[in-house]
Amino acid sequence: MPVPATRPVPPALVIQTAFLGDVVLTTPLLEALARRHGPVDVVTTPAAVALVETHPAVRRVISYDKRGKDRGLAQLVALARTLRAERYAVAYLPHRSLRTAALAWLARIPKRVGFRDGWPLLYTDVRQRATSDHEIDRLLALATAREDAGPRRPSLRLTSADRTVTEQFLREHGVGETLVALAPGSIWGSRTSPSLRSGSPRARRSWWSEDRRMRRSGRGPPRRSGGQADRRSTPAVGSPFGNQPK
Asked: What's the whole-model pTM score?
């Protein structure tokens, strides 16, 4: 008697379309879920695709340009149809936005796990989000089982091409093996020091004091990281990867 074919169990889905840093902090959750379900599928922003597509806890990455070409209700519904066709059994929703909750609901994923301070009426399983723990630990609450928690440090998997480009960039900017970086800016003004935003004498003295300390230790000057917006909003800390003022 022939044995009936069994349909493969679909992987779990994680929808995380927040900022890049939030995606990085979600990687321990991806690892915890992969131990339970096998490698997971991830819906994320185009900017974050390269961060997670090489991760061993990820099977497939689905790009969702929510502020660009995929903006609007019609594109949200179209993506929901695509996800519905995959017949996911469960979706984990670390991003507490209405768009994320609606996407999983429209995709008719039968089990939708999210936080109480998100959109609980659109979830089937609601988790309490801690207010005092590190964000990694808060996100791991979605995995629930203690044995699923695992490592509590972010992890990324770089390709050889990534390493080559990075090493070339650092060489071009005179950075050796030791790099100490300061990221003074933030898209959220509340997370940036007012003294750094204003370029106050106190902030400048603090920066150059650290600069001298690092040089004396033989580790070279600290470098500032960030984009053009950080260059404009935090003038107190000089230029990123450039020559430091005397």
From this structure: 0.78
